[in-house]
Specification:
Its cofactor is [2Fe-2S] cluster. This protein has seven helices and four strands. The protein has 158 residues and is α+β, with helices and mostly antiparallel strands. Helix 1 runs parallel beside helix 3. The chain starts with 8 loop residues before the first helix and ends with a helix.
Length: 158
């Protein structure tokens, strides 16, 4: 995973301009901004609102509604732990709590070394392999605390 670029208003304006021709361009623009900067920079919200003739509140509402949009860059590795009922019933909460305590962070936070971000998701479609997680986009199933911790440590130092 390549690190995000620092905020650049000119680059953001170019990204916005490249997507304005699309029907319903707000989400594609937000995804492109996040891909470029690792998050949705606060200063990009009024730029996008102006370009789409929407209020800042409307754009902010879209950014805060969708869990995949970030306000700060994620760590080098992203761990998404399923918190849906099937995974919870088979121990995902205990495994995730142990991981968060081990890393010294909470849900949606990044470790101080910026290597790992842990996020909650509410169904990965891996119920038959519950409890499950995505580690840098790769599905991992039948987790317990030890297996989750080992998988995270493996990618954390890679």
């Amino acid at each position: 995973m390549t690190p995000p670029l620092p905020w650049d208003a000119r680059q953001a304006a170019e990204i916005i301009g490249r997507h304005l021709h699309l029907e319903g361009p707000a989400l594609p623009i937000l995804h492109a901004l996040q891909a470029a900067f690792g998050h949705i920079p606060d200063d990009a919200v009024p730029m996008l609102a102006d370009a789409l003739n929407l209020s800042r509140a409307e754009i902010h509402g879209v950014v805060t509604f969708y869990h995949d949009f970030r306000h700060e860059p994620a760590g080098r590795h992203t761990i998404k732990v399923c918190r849906a009922e099937a995974c919870q019933s088979l121990g995902s909460e205990a495994a995730a709590t142990a991981l968060l305590e081990r890393l010294g962070i909470g849900w949606g936070e990044t470790t101080a070394d910026t290597r790992v971000t842990v996020e909650a998701v509410y169904c990965l479609g891996l119920c038959a392999c519950a409890p499950a997680a995505l580690i840098d986009g790769d599905p991992v199933g039948r987790l317990d605390g030890a297996k989750l911790a080992a998988a995270v440590e493996e990618v954390r130092w890679s």
